[in-house]
From TrEMBL:
HTH gntR-type domain residues: 15-82
PROSITE patterns, per database record: HTH_GNTR
Keywords: DNA-binding, Transcription, Transcription regulation
MF (Gene Ontology): DNA-binding transcription factor activity; sequence-specific DNA binding
InterPro entries attached to this UniProt entry: AsnC-type_HTH_dom (IPR000485), GntR_C (IPR011711), TF_FadR/GntR_C (IPR008920), Tscrpt_reg_HTH_GntR (IPR000524), WH-like_DNA-bd_sf (IPR036388), WH_DNA-bd_sf (IPR036390)
Record has S-adenosyl-L-methionine as a keyword: no
Protein name: GntR family transcriptional regulator
Keyword Lipid metabolism in record: no
SMART domains assigned: FCD, HTH_GNTR
Cross-referenced Pfam families: FCD (PF07729), GntR (PF00392)
Source organism (scientific name): Aerophobetes bacterium
Superkingdom assignment: Bacteria
């Protein structure tokens, strides 16, 4: 499968072309507008975006380092497929790192901030019931980012940043399983309730279980795709 990318306006006027190309392609990968296995051709991308092949090559190399594309010698560049082994490794790290992050971050959450998070999550319930996952995907991403940011542990933040794009891919796969988005929302709410009580141990265990549930659902989705 190949893909065609609409040419963004005035892309060739941007100061950092490789970064601009990187951001455009990455967003299409993370939103799954570009499906796993799609072949990406440097010359086609360069033509469609109105740039030379150099910034395209630099963008593709960065995407490969982040695990979002796979470069196969003599065959080309493809949107990466997420394998069960990838899921196991990514979510083992996520569970451990976020478990630490929430214990470090909890003292920095005000009660008002936690109540605001509760309200924002409640507002996602109606869209989810209608099959609109976009509001919760935004809240879900922001919630996990905030936990990590407020840990104030720079090394932890960098490690999670490296995992972030692959986690976001997995999150979309997880929501493809019927009922998972609603369940994930409920899991967030129980984590916030534990945080409101100031119970760091309970909040950590609930967040770890949330990560394990997400992993299990992604693995279930991958089996469904294979028809197992």
């Amino acid at each position: 499968m190949q893909f065609k990318l609409p040419r963004p306006p005035r892309l060739n006027n941007r100061p950092n072309l490789s970064e601009a190309v990187y951001e455009i392609v990455k967003q299409r990968l993370l939103s799954q507008q570009l499906e796993p296995g799609t072949k990406l051709r440097e010359e086609d991308l360069a033509d469609q975006l109105g740039v030379s092949r150099t910034p395209v090559r630099e963008a593709i190399n960065k995407l490969e380092r982040e695990g979002l594309v796979e470069i196969i010698p003599r065959y080309g560049t493809f949107v990466a497929n997420i394998s069960p082994k990838d899921v196991e490794e990514i979510y083992q790290l996520r569970e451990t790192l976020e478990g630490l992050a929430i214990k470090l971050a909890l003292p920095r959450f005000s009660r008002n901030k936690l109540l605001e998070l509760t309200r924002i999550h409640k507002e996602c319930e109606a869209p989810i019931e209608k099959g609109d996952f976009d509001p919760f995907i935004r809240v879900d991403t922001a919630f996990h980012h905030l936990l990590v940011k407020l840990s104030k542990n720079e090394r932890l933040i960098r490690l999670m940043s490296n995992l972030d794009n692959q986690i976001r891919l997995g999150r979309l796969e997880s929501f493809s399983v019927p009922g998972r988005a609603k369940k994930s929302l409920e899991e967030h709410e129980t984590v916030i309730e534990a945080m409101l009580k100031g119970d760091a141990d309970e909040a950590e265990e609930l967040l770890r279980q949330h990560s394990r549930n997400a992993k299990d659902n992604i693995l279930r989705f991958l089996k469904m795709k294979k028809g197992e």
